[in-house]
Specification:
Layout lengths: L2 E5 L2 E4 L8 E10 L4 E7 L4 E6 L12 E6 L2 E6 L2 E5 L9 E5 L4 E6 L2 E9 L3 E8 L5 E9 L57
Length: 202
Amino acid sequence: LNVTIPNSNTLTSITTGTGWTHGARTNETISSTTGGEVEFTANQDWTMVGFGKGTFNGSYTGVDYALSPASSGLKVYENGVGMGTFGTWTLGDTFKVTMDAGGLVKYWKNGTVFYTSATTATGDYSTDVVMYHINTTVNVSSMKNYANTYTDSAVALGTGYSYQVNANNSVGLTSLSGASNSVIPSTPPSTPTAPVATFVNN
């Protein structure tokens, strides 16, 4: 809606004037029973990114869980209602909205949680991006669906593992991807032996 998408993870608002008439919604959804996240940066205030369902109208009122770097500070809006202002932000800050497998939504700045929603998400949500000003650019650096996360429980401690993936649909199966980085499972160190106390009479 009144945006250009110069590449797969960047949106820029176009047309003239200001107002909540610029935005986009993903076709892919995440479920509140599996969770997901979206991470982004913005070059302009009054941008909102988060999770929404129902009819998309290009406005923040249609976003169920929205993080907004605003002119007056870092804000959270849920279903169009402000949840508060949580400090300040600067250009270059990285923001993230996460939803866990229980529907708990958290809001992050530079890797730190600054607000946890008091409501529990239910159902399927798309990722929404809405912008108030023209020439605003939002870069979505990461968008994950936790349902696509794989847990390998059959590993040996101290052994390195890397992984390859492929995709499958009704047409067929792709070839394998390149290998991931190697990870080595480990455990905490063993409990130390009990110390020995000695009394010295001076």
